[in-house]
Each structure stands twice: as structure tokens, then as C-alpha cells.
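Study this chain:
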Amino acid sequence: MWSGPRNISTALMRSWENRNDCSVVDEPFYAAYLADTGLNHPCREQILLTQTTDYAKVIEELTCNPVSAPLQYQKQMTHHIPRGMSMRWSATFKHCFLIRDPAQVIASYLQKMPSIDEDAIGISRQAALFDQITEISGSPPAVIDSNDVLQNPKQLLKNLCLALDVEFPEEQMLSWPTGRRSSDGIWADHWYHNVEQSTGFGLYQPTRPNLTGEHLALAEAMQAPYQKLAKLRIRP
């Protein structure tokens, strides 16, 4: 599942992890991304200590390590993948892209971080990875929009499972227990507070954030890559 930050990606990970037949992997490239970019993210030192910073080793873990359940859900952040990196390692996976309106992403991100730019939110990177993976796999991956999930999680997830050719255990994917998981990344202390209190997907809030200045300009610039994928999305 290829997402950017602040995009219900952790709630969706909860949904899949609550299935009896699925294990999850939480942002496996985060430490490699921080080491590569030198960015000072919250929990940086803990992340670097708890994950490998070697992209090749992460790929080896994702493609060679045994999986403890019939399905594995990988929560991947598009901005963690450096430009120019080959995606051939992912050729045998089924891919899905989780998108969200850029203005909503930016407004939510600014609640957790002091500054923002195009690279940080991964929307343009998402569109580029979509093209790469489409070329490798020979067909476009599934696309879902977080707003569609929140408006009708039952039907959207049912349609997604159909597209991925897996069963849809409704009672497992629509609700889950509160609390932290052992599978959560160490960064949960900063990012996962709301999800830890949740028992299901949040309410859909159709209001558009009131952005100004450079933040509004960024949201407008990200409309093109967002709309490119939005046109292809699975609908409820």
C-alpha cells in the first residue's frame, strides 16, 4: 500500500492487521530514508537504532524473509523511496495506491511538523512510482482515496479486496481494538495517538482546509499528480 503521510494509512494498516490471515509491516524504509536525507524527524535516533539504514537489506527482508500469515500488508511511504531506485524487487507483489486531497494532507501534516515541502508529502513521488510499477507489472495498480474509504468503508474495502482477489472479512476489517501494536514503528509516539484511540475508521469530514500563501500554492501544484491517480480510483 503506497501512501504519503497523514492519509489514514495507519488506520488502514489496522484494518488489514485485524484480519486473521494477515500480518503487517510498518514503513520499513523509514530509517534508510532518514539516513539518506539527513532529515531531523521526530524520533529520528530511535528509528535509526531500530531499523536497518541499508535499502538493499530492507528489500532483502521484504522479499526473502518468511511471512507469518497467508497475507502480508506492507505500509509503504512513497517519499521514503529515492528517485532513481529500481522497483524490480516489487514485481511479484500486488500494489495499491492510497491517495488524499493535497490540501487535506498539508493541513494535517502541519499539525505535526513545523514545515512542509513537495518531497515531504510524497504526492508527486506517488504518481511517479505509480508509473514505474505499472510498467513493471504490465497493468495499473489499484487506487483508493482516503475520502472514499471514510465515506463508505464497507463498500470501498469490499471492492478493493475484490480487485486484489482476496476475501473480505467485513467484521474484521471495519473495527479493531484500541491501543498500540507490537508491529507499530517506534515513531508511533509522535504520529499514532489518534489511531491508538480508535476502534474503526473516523467520520468523513468534507470541509476543505483554509490554506494560504506557500501552503496553498503547494496544494495547487500537487493537484495534477493527485488528479492523475484520482481518475483511476476504485469507487464505493
In short: The mean pLDDT is 96. Strands lie at 2-3, 22-26, 71-77, 96-99, 142-145. Residues 2-230 form a domain with the Rossmann fold fold (CATH 3.40.50). The radius of gyration is 17 Å.
